[in-house]
Design goal:
The protein is of the alpha+beta class and about 130 residues long. The chain contains one helix and seven strands. The strands form two sheets. A four-stranded antiparallel β-sheet has the order 2-1-7-6, with no helix packed on it. A three-stranded antiparallel β-sheet has the order 3-4-5, with no helix packed on it. A hairpin with a 3-residue loop joins strand 3 and strand 4.
């Protein structure tokens, strides 16, 4: 007599894991969409804030050039900021992509860093004590 490949309990466990995974994905996606705006970007040159931009007030994307140790061009949009041109030797900053809320990136040879912060209440990671 051949044993069945799956028992009924195996199938129930598999379906439960799939359901919990899908539910978690949807919950995280909806939470991230709700918490993504408003955001403020800080542009720093050698650790000094040179420009602060409220991203929710940006209507159309535009470019700005920041003069650090080397010139860097940034694209500012409502969604975030990205490095689009840098005169540094490696160009790694241009591969960082769109910098969104609670993210940061830097061009170390140029001394330019960008940090985007959500303006909402900070979430508590944990309580000790």
């Amino acid at each position: 007599m051949k044993r069945p490949y799956f028992k009924l309990t195996d199938l129930i466990v598999i379906l439960l894991v799939i359901f919990v995974s899908a539910s978690s994905f949807v919950f995280i996606h909806v939470k991230n969409q709700a918490g993504s705006a408003p955001a403020v970007a800080e542009i720093r040159v050698n650790s000094q804030v040179v420009k602060t931009i409220e991203l929710t007030s940006v209507r159309t994307p535009y470019e700005i050039t920041v003069e650090g140790n080397l010139p860097v061009t940034l694209e500012v949009s409502r969604e975030g900021i990205r490095f689009i041109n840098a005169k540094c030797p490696d160009g790694l900053c241009m591969h960082s992509g769109l910098i969104e809320a609670n993210e940061s990136a830097a061009c170390l040879p140029a001394g330019v860093s960008v940090k985007v912060m959500a303006q909402s209440e900070p979430e508590i990671d944990g309580v000790v004590g």
